[in-house]
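Fold it.
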Amino acid sequence: MAALAYEHHVIEYHRTKKDRVQSVWHWSNVPHDALVDSGWWVDLETHRKRRLGPGEINCCSEYGLDGLALNKDGSYTGIQAKNWKKCALTPTKLGTFISAINNRMVPKDSRNDGILYYANGKANALSPELRKDLYSSKTISAEHVPSCKLAPVTIPSDKDETLFELHPYQIDAVANLNDSCWTRGLLTMPPGTGKTLVVSHHVAHVMQQYALVVMLAPTRVLVEQLKSRVVPFLSNTTHGVSWSVKKVDSDNDGTRNLHDIKSLFDNAKTSNPAIIFATYKSGVDVVLEAILGTDEDVRAQSLLVVDEAHNTLGPEYKESIHEGLGRAMGRTLLVTEIHPACFL
């Protein structure tokens, strides 16, 4: 988890370079079109199958990329984060990253570049061989960012998102979602503009319409983040509705027991409405089977929210989530930061 935390640290640090940077993504939510436009991915379909294949975690860390930034001039910067403190970094530890920057991204656009962030502040943090390679490439820079320089990437306890004043565009988005005349929706907003905030307000405002809400995210880390941000809106509601909250997970206070989840769904009709948080894979493996065996009245009053929905465009999840789980529930809301045309 220390490595993952450091990755998020440097992503937020890189975001502060506002003179150049327009958008920054961690590897867990990089849009597919950005990976192709940057040159990091050459063949979208091949990489999409690897990224969304059965049983695989949705990430591109295996390609040597920890983050990607879109710059204001239209160029891209590949980001690598290394929280190593005991030994020097060598070219072999960064081989994929260096190769992809120099052989794919730069040929795609000569303005593209890469940056290596490292936590080790010792003079020998970078081996002589690596320093030589970085110097000769002219396309990859290195910067020391201590792991203690940035606060943990979580919402501080003194910042209650339920008390945030919405921007006009967020108010409009919530109002559109609160309209009862839709069954399949698409919420498209740039990174960092409050997609989760909008969805949370929608669920809190019209919670009496729903007997069941299922919220999916690509990875277990993102599921936990989503749950921690949405649940406070349910407890702060003025409607007096008490929600049953459950995470579909084999550990961390969750369950993958089909009978337990099915019972939760059944109780949603007569007692407390339920909200379920799960990864895409758990949604397909567990939630879909449970919802198919649930009372039709509950299904008619249900909402499926697919966060980072651009990651479900591959053949594996497009069929099982969009057509399977989505069709089994009353409403489906896809939440993404990429252009709506990608979902047509």
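The chain has two domains: 2-144, 161-343.
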